[in-house]
Amino acid sequence: MNTDIYTGAHPDGGFFLFTRKQKIMEEEEMDYNQFLEEVKIAIQQKLGSEYDISIQKVTKNNGIVLDGLIIRKVDKNFAPTIYLNSYFMHFMQGMLLSEILEDIIAAYKENMDIAPGDLNGLLDFNNLKNKIVYKLIQKEKNQELLKDVPSFEFLDLAMIFYLILDENKEGQMTALIHNSHIQVWGVTKDEIYQLAKENTSVLLPPEIKTMKAIMHDMLKELPDEMCVDEVLEDFLDIDSERPSMYVLTNKRQINGAGCILYDNCLKEFAVSQGSDIIILPSSVNEVILVPDKGNLDYGELQNMVGQINESEVPEEDVLSDHIYKYSCHEDRISFIK
Questions:
Q1: Does 15 lie in the same domain as 90?
Q2: Integer CA distances (angstroms), 293 to 21, 26, 242, 243, 322, in order
Q3: Is 22 helix (H, G, I), strand (E, B) or coil?
Q4: Which residue, of 60, 90, 111, is where some domain finishes?
Q5: Is 202 helix (H, G, I), strand (E, B) or coil?
Q6: Which of 106, 157, 175, 320: CA 20 to 30 A from 117?
Q7: 3-state secondary structure 103-130
Q8: What are the tens digits of pLDDT across the range 68-80?
Q9: DSSP letter at 62?
């Protein structure tokens, strides 16, 4: 077959090659459903008949529904899910379909070795006791989900539970615990809570870093000739008048907001700072801790959280628009009014 080859500028610099068919397809406006079908067909063609490729709608945190590409090898009874919604956004911004396909296959290969082992073992509660952990989600936006899972309320949040089935440096294989599971296991949600309370801080130990240290890690990739400290000073506009901020998350930086409920985590930090602590819910994955030295504008902090949630945090990762205060004397978290 005679195929014409074209060259063009790559969005990240350099050049790429593509065929006439690619050029026509990608120059035409493609709606979202067409995009999903094109990706599904192309991945099937690339991986072959040994794989079963499908697309399913998956309800995530805060009621957000995403389209997940399920890539399952026919002789396996589990499969990773790769969400396509953000890929469509990149496609509309100029990312080539061929690049998207390469990225999806790379993501699949990175996670294909994460497996739960013998799935029959998931029916035996004794095999699962040390895998149960908890996370915090927003209560109001997850009313439908909360009807179907064991949970405990905490202020405007809810604690729910999941299993860490396997993990590697690239990610985790997890499974949300539903009411139907605890019925099969013959346990109560109080028993699930006690196990999660014991496991979560061990499997996902807390980490507290200064905001400056976090930014320093992010800026390590700058060219050698650029001074990281100078960039940090300019970026953060650091001065003695601004309150110190710390980021609390877990070692995985996934569902790290739950660290605020770890035994003694906030208490030890508050004692080290010699003050109560203001908690800013940055996302489900982390919170920002601000020592309350008596000079904070709570209204300004409240507005900041609301604005960041609206403009910076993905909707499925939003935790709360409220800010909280940890009282060291009372060892208790409460709303700030």
A1: yes
A2: 64, 56, 11, 9, 20
A3: helix
A4: 111
A5: helix
A6: 106
A7: HHHHHHHHHCCCCCCCHHHHHCHHHCHH
A8: 999 988 877 677 7
A9: G
